[in-house]
Specification:
The chain is an alpha/beta fold. The chain has a domain of 217 residues: Aldolase class I (TIM Barrel), CATH 3.20.20.70. The chain has 17 helices and 16 strands. Helix 5 runs parallel beside helix 6. The longest helix is centred in the last third of the chain and has 20 residues. It is globular and about 80 Å long.
Length: 485
Amino acid sequence: MTKEKPFIHLFNTQKGYYIFDVNTNAILKINRGTYDLLKKITSSQAISEELYKSYCEDETIKNLKDNGFLSSKKVKEVVHPYNNILEYYMSRNIKMITLQVTQQCNLRCEYCAYSGIYANREHKNVKMSLETAKKGIRFLLENSIDTEEVNIGFYGGEPLLEFELVKQAILYAKSISEGKKLTFSFTTNGTLFTKEIIEFMMAQDVMITISLDGPKEVHDKNRRFAVSGCGTFDKVIKNLDFFKKNYPEYFKKIIFNAVFDGSNNFNCLNEFFTTYDVIKDCAISTSEVAKEYALFDKSNNEDYDAQLDYEIFKMYLSKLNRVNERNVSKLVLEYYNNLEKSLVKERKLRTQLSDKDHHGGPCIPGAQRLFMDVNGNFYPCERVSENSEPMCIGNIDKGFDYDKIRRLLNIGELTKESCVNCWAFRFCTLCAAYADNLDELSKKKKNSNCNFVRASLDKDLKDYCMLNEFGYRFSDDSAFELVEV
C-alpha cells in the first residue's frame, strides 16, 4: 500500500483546529483528534503501519476523502497559464506605461532606490526626450486594443523636474487617443508644486500621489534636499496648504504615500495621519522600505511591531462591533482589504490541482505596469532595477523580447522542486524580482523569501478563521463558508 500524505496545511486558533486543503482551496474545521492524527501523518518522515492504519480508519478522514478532500495530488509541470498565448496577449492588452522622464531628483532620500542602500540604481543627470516619450505613448495605444482604459504614469527621479516634458506628453497622448479612455498619474515628493503645475494637472484630471512619511521629525529623517541636506517637511506642508486652500476639490483626490521606517514609533505616525489638519481627511497608502535589492536588511524595532499589531487587533475588533470604527487607524485598513482580497474575493473552490500550473506571484511582465526608462528600455514595472540584465524585456525600437518575458513569467520553473511541494502554491506573492541578482535569476535568492510568504499566509488563515469564529461574515463570503466536519 502506497502511503500517500494529504497535501494540506494544518493550523489552529484559540477556538478551533483547521485544514487548508491545497487541492480544493477549502478551509475545513475539524476535531482535535483528527487534527493530531493528520499532524503526525504530515510531519512523519516514515509513516508506520500502525499510524497509517489509524489514518485510513478515522471516520472524519473517511468522510473528508469521500467528499473530495485530502488528495495528495501535486502539480507536475510548472508553467504559467498565459505561456502559450503570451505574444497575442501582450500585443493587445497593455494597460499602463510608466515613463521615467528623468533619473535626477532634487532630494536624496535615505531609503530611495537611487540613494545608496540599494545595489541597483543611482541618480544621474539624464532625462527622456520628447520623441522617446511619444514613441512610448504610441506603443501603449497600439498594444492595448482589448483594453478600454489605459494609464500613462510619470516617474523619476522627481518627474516635476521635467514638467514641460510631462505637459507635452499628456497633450500629445490626448491628441492621438480618440476612442480610448485615458488617465494620467504621477508620484511626486511634493516640493516643486507651482500654481501653473497644479492648474494644468487639475485641467487634465491627473491622479497625484505625494510622498509624506509622517511628522517633521520622522519625515525629515529620511527625506532631505540633495544640495542643502535639510529636511523637506516644511516645504511640502507649505505647498500642501497652498494646494488645499486654492484648489480644495482637486486636493480631495490626492493620495498620500507613506513609506514606513520600522525604527520609528508607529503610534506617532498614526496620530499624525489621523489628526494633522491638512491631510487628516485624505487617502493614505502605506508601504515599507523595499527589500528586493537592498544591500542590507533594515528590520523593525519591537515597539513598532507591537504597536502595529495592536492597531490591527483593534481594526479586527471593529469588524466584530467591539470597537468603534472612529478609533481604528486608517493606516492598517489595508491589512483587512488584503485579507479579504486573498481569502475571499480571489479564493476559488476547486476540485484538484492541475497537472500544469504556476504559483501565484508573477503578473504578465509588462502588461500591468510596463516601465520605460529614459533611454526607451522596457522593464516589467518601476520596482525592478534598470541595471538588471534579466529584467530588461525589450526596448521601444525593437519591441518586446518574448524569450526574456517568458523566463520572468515562468519564474516558478526556477524553483520547481520546492514550489510543487509548497502548500502556499496558489497564494505565493513572489515574482521574478525576488530572484534578481542583476546578472541572473537566483534560485537561492528566491527560495530565501519562501518562509516569509508561508508565515504571512498562515497568519491570514488564522485571522480569517478567527473572524468567522466570532460571527463575522465577509461581504462576498457566501460561497466560502467554513466546512465543518
